[in-house]
Amino acid sequence: MYPSRFSYEAPSTVAEAVAMLAAADGEAKILAGGQSLIPMMKLRFAAPAMIVDINGIGGLDYHRADPDGTYRIGALCRHADLEKSAALADVQPTIAAAAPVVADPLVRTRGTLVGSVCHADPQGDWASVMVSLEGAIVAQGPDGRRSIQVADLIDGPFQTVLAPDEIATEAVVPAPRGTRAGGYLKLERRVGDFATVGVAVSVEMSGGSVARAGIGLTGVGPATINASDAAAALVGTALDADAVDAAAQLAAEAAQPRSDHRGSADYKRHVVATFVRRIGAQIQRSEQEAA
Amino acid sequence: MALDEIKIGGLGASRRRVEDNRFIRGKGNYIDDIALPGMLHMEILRSPLAHARIRSIDVSAAWAIPGVRMVLTGDMLAARNLAWMPTLSYDTQAVLATDKVRFQGQEVACVVADDPYIAKDGCEAIVVDYEPLPPIVNPTQATAPGAPLIRDDKTGQDSNVVFDWEVGDREGTDRAFAQADVVSAIEMHYPRSHPSPIETCGSIADFNRATSKLTVYMTTQAPHIIRAAVALVAELPEHMIRIVSPDLGGGFGNKVPVYPGYVVSILASILLECPVKWIEDKSGNLISTGFGRDIYLKGEMALRNDGRILGVRMHTDSDHGAFFSDAQPSKFKIGLMHSAFSCYDIPAAHLTAQGVYTNKAPGGVAYRCSFRVTEAMYFQERMVQAAAADLGMDQAEFRRINLVRDDDFPHRTPWGFLTDSGQYGKCLDLGLEAIGYEDFLRQKEEARQRGRLLGIGISTMTEPLGAGNSREYDILGIKMFDSAELKVHMTGKALLRTGAKTQGQGHETTWAQIVAHELGIPAEDVLVEEGDTDTAPFGMGTYASRSTPVAGAAVAMVSRKIRAKARQIAAHLLEVSEEDVEWELGRFSVRGAPDRGVTIQECAIAAYSNMPDGMEPGLENNAYYDPPNLTWPFACYIATVEVDPETGVWDVLRVVAVDDCGVRINPMIVEGQIMGGLTEAYAMANMQFITFDEDGNCIGSNYMDYLLPTAWETPGFELHEVVTPCPHHPIGAKGIGECATVGGPAAFVNAVIDAIGDSGVRNIDMPLLPDRVYEAITGGHDISGAPPVKTE
After folding, report:
1. Which domains, from first to last, does chain B contain?
2. Residue ranges matching CATH 3.30.465.10 in chain A
3. DSSP string across B573-602
4. pLDDT, tens digit, for every residue of B12-70?
């Protein structure tokens, strides 16, 4: 497991990192948690000429809420930081549900949410979660900063619209229109296994009905799937069983799974529907308990 | 006063493992820890295709890379008659491919360079022109009319069949089936898996031109067999070959065969006259080295309505990959498959077996198993569950009716093995009591009313562990005995060496306990060394749970030789005749005057300073032990599960294990072996398999696809014991290292099948992935074969 030759840079500011990326002319990769990049380099599936290690850049390891409820997660915030955050479950239930089931404890200690989203692995958990939350990525390049919806960021397996000289510095979840509820369920053969199926459901409840909903699907298509029709079927409902059932069917239809050694396509669709129902029922239960 | 045996670390002491002291401090000495002056590094270029003719290999760009010292291809080896090597099963295996590649991952070329990065760069620079050929990935394809011939290198080989073999009484079995009230038939597949020790294979070959001596540090479970193989293959004099097997990071059967990397590193060292190191990477290990299992079964049982088994028929189709390199006794082509049903009293049985070549990695090693015993016992216990269901009989009761009774030993099995001891019924009853069998059946019924699926699976089995005896067991003609050499120093401290090779079993701890038991020398005063052919006595190595049954017996026997000599010295020191000397642990005393005595340590110093007239000085000896029979541990494993009918996901509720491995040398280590084995059993049932797509691409070439269970999902195990000493082993011990791997998988699968019993499903082949379980429940049909892999 010996990677190809590469040069290593460790900038101390985002601007410095952007300059290095620009100079590398598309041949550089950013190292944050490294939990996907390093194995790919060791297998020589990836052979970047330069590694830009951003771990020395200060002030990127945060996750916090703005006064208006907007939630920001810095590029060096580790999965484990989210997993261990006691306050997160109240304000970001979908993120809190996903954090403990990302990969395994070792990976969670190093890996980052922003890195995972930008890696754009169709089997990555965070992109589905962010899609369900209408989340965005803030990218900084030579010409300044821009915000990209995660649903628009990913344009294929392992492909994003980020320019080679752009760095994703944070993930942003917009403020909710009401009370947040949500969940993430994942079928895996073993802790640390890639998801056979992952389903993220996020809703914002206002006055007893759904003001906004999002459903993201992991591992059942060539890229993270934004099941927007399924989510739309929930809006305006009280999240009753019939509405959830309709959304579950639409989510299963939105999935584009293929048969592989993790399961058949039909089975994966069935699990998508089952998980949407289960998260819906979970939310219903906790709403009733709260009431 | 006799010594307290537990206090001196003798038999029955749960002594902490002495080897762990260095392992947990990071002070182990594994192959990759060894660095020799001037050492170069070798990497292997592997075939990306499963079956292809090699048109040409262009190595010029690799030679041009600075730091590349040598590029080796099959043609270079052929010029030295080394392109092919013998396997452990009287076949040949390509070292580096010359004519064709026959499986994905096959060794095509090697690059030796100043460091492993450059060596890897060199491999990438080699250009191989392949002409793809149709690949064969299962026995059905291999035997289909017009199937491409994989082994066209072999004169007279006109099909892909490796062997046809049979054992048992065909006519007698036919008669039994003619008398049957019910015939229970089932087909199943034991999928291919890989032993996957955490440490991969590797070697450092160091040929010294000045002394003509070849030293090879090598990850091997059987260093003496390797020495003989190197002498024969490389035509080097055996006394000038030293094989050193350092600390091993696991073996599980994977480190028994000879692999091309070893051979080429040796040749490279001879040609370059400097040490050459080869450390296999994880993918290389998973795709090219000895796999386990990959057998299809057609099984039938002849049953009487009262529950008695009248006869058994089995036919196996085994997939051996491109070269027949199973590690197994020479005369048994499908290993000890015919040890199936040894724990049951069965009048007649017949087994036929066909092995085939496919375009998959060779191997068929005994993955934590005595030569196909794992498959035998899995098939047995799945057949037994199906038979009980076909008779409408309780699965525990069906077993109780057919298990060999305590007063029936020695018992000759229908396929000729002699089982000699056990309390099978007691083990079963203890297991049922521990799991709360009747209570669980009630719970299961109540749960069923509420739409929940609970299930219970039982697996009872005895397995043959500890080959030989030498009459029946050999590898390439070398008889399967083993050895020990004990040197008691002047101060009563001792050095013990054996022909076995520990790889996690804890020999450094347990062998010393046997010496402590036999001689009263505290275990901490006994240093155990293994693995260096220049110092260790000749032995066949460690696999097939043979260490305690064979080498461990040799340790007891050499200790007894030492004790016999010490007795003569004691008589001399006590000035009495030998007949008047009595032994208690650690001390000789005068009969009738127990206060007059000498310790074993006093005898030791006398052996060097005050021996009787005419006695050869010193207190050293050796023993070669040829066991009279295999040892036959018995186990009863019971698992309970809950299946989620909506997703097919199943969770283990409880696992109860009752093991009877005779006398336990170190109970803690025995329990560790059982827990490790059960973990692997759970893994087999749930996730751990290697499969191939129709192009022969290996699915399972890394730890992202080939899943080993972690502490997170591995269930807890409740262990119980019964002790029936082995009647022929000097200390009454039986093998234990593999029982749970062998007997465990069926308990889990039986439990899941029991849980979904209402669906009418009789079999789901491992691994029981959720989608397969779900499909079985909803479709109401069996799920057979390896998981489907479609390339899209």
Report:
1. 20-27+482-625 (3.30.365.10), 34-133+201-248+255-281 (3.90.1170.50), 292-467+629-779 (3.30.365.10)
2. 63-173
3. HHTS-GGGEEEETTEEEETTEEEEEEEHHH
4. 999 999 999 999 999 999 999 999 999 999 999 999 999 999 999 999 999 999 999 99
Rounded distance between C-alpha atoms, residue B148 and residue B125, angstroms: 31
Residues of B catalogued as catalytic: 221, 368-369, 738
Q: B788 to chain A: which residues are within 8 Å by CB?
A: 259, 261, 264
Q: Cα–Cα distance between B324 and B364 in angstroms, integer?
A: 8
The answer to whether the Cβ–Cβ distance between B770 and A196 falls below 8 Å is yes
**HSE-CB of B788 using CA atoms within 13 angstroms:** 13
Residue B531: strand, helix, or coil: coil
- Interface touch B687/A274, C-beta < 8 Å: no
Name chain B contacts of A4, Cβ cutoff 8 Å: 121
Choice among A102-106, A286-290, B264-268, B649-653 with the minimum mean pLDDT: A286-290
Could you tell me the sign of the dihedral formed by the alpha carbons of B770, B774, B776, B777, in that order? Answer: positive
Select the residue of A3, A193, A258 nearest B707 (Cβ to Cβ): A193
State the smallest CA–CA distance between residue B704 and chain A in angstroms.
7
Cα–Cα–Cα angle for B704, B708, B712, nearest 5°?
Answer: 105
Residues carrying CATH 3.30.43.10, chain A: 7-56
User: Which chain B residues are Cβ-neighbours of A261 within 8 angstroms?
Assistant: 691, 699, 705, 787-789
Cα of B410 vs its chain's centroid, Å: 26
pLDDT one-digit tens code per residue, A105-123: 999 999 999 999 999 999 9
- 3-state DSSP call for residue A179? strand
Task: Select the residue of B691, B770, B792 nearest A261 (Cβ to Cβ).
Answer: B691
Cβ distance of A267 and B116 shorter than 8 Å: no
B94, B83 contact by CB (below 8 A)? yes
Please check whether residue A192 touches B, CB under 8 A. Answer: yes
Handedness of CA A96, A98, A99, A101 (dihedral sign): positive
Class of domain A63-173: alpha beta
User: Which contacts (CB < 8 Å, 24+ apart) does range A55-58 have?
Assistant: A55/A10, A55/A31, A56/A10, A56/A11, A56/A12, A57/A11, A57/A12, A57/A13, A57/A14, A57/A17, A58/A12
Residue B476's Cβ-side half-sphere holds a number of Cα atoms within 13 Å equal to: 18
Q: CATH second-level architecture of A7-56?
A: 2-Layer Sandwich (3.30)
What CA–CA distance (Å, rounded) separates B599 from B243? 38
Structure tokens of B722? 């019964």
- Distance separating alpha carbons of residues A223 and A214, to the nearest angstrom: 16
Measured between alpha carbons, how far is B746 from B385 in angstroms, rounded to an integer?
9
SS3 B68: strand
HEC readout, B226-274: HHHHHHHHCCCCHHHEEEECCECCCCCCCCCCCCHHHHHHHHHHHHHCC
Closest approach of A105 to chain B, Cα-based (Å): 10
Strand pairing category for B478-479 and B593-599: unpaired
- B31 within 8 A of B220, measured Cβ to Cβ: no
Question: How confident is the model over B636-677, as pLDDT tens digits?
Answer: 999 999 999 999 999 999 999 999 999 999 999 999 999 999
pLDDT score for B466: 87
CA distance A194 to A132: 19
CB-CB neighbors (< 8 A) of B702 in chain A: 43
Q: Helix-strand-coil percent breakdown of chain B, rounded to 5? A: 30, 25, 45
B771–A43 C-beta distance less than 8 A: no
| Distance (Å) from the alpha carbon of A154 to chain B's nearest alpha carbon | 22
Question: Distance between CA atoms of B602 and B486, rounded to whole angstroms?
Answer: 17
Does A4 contact B at CB distance below 8 Å? yes
CATH 3.30.390.50 correct for A179-290: yes
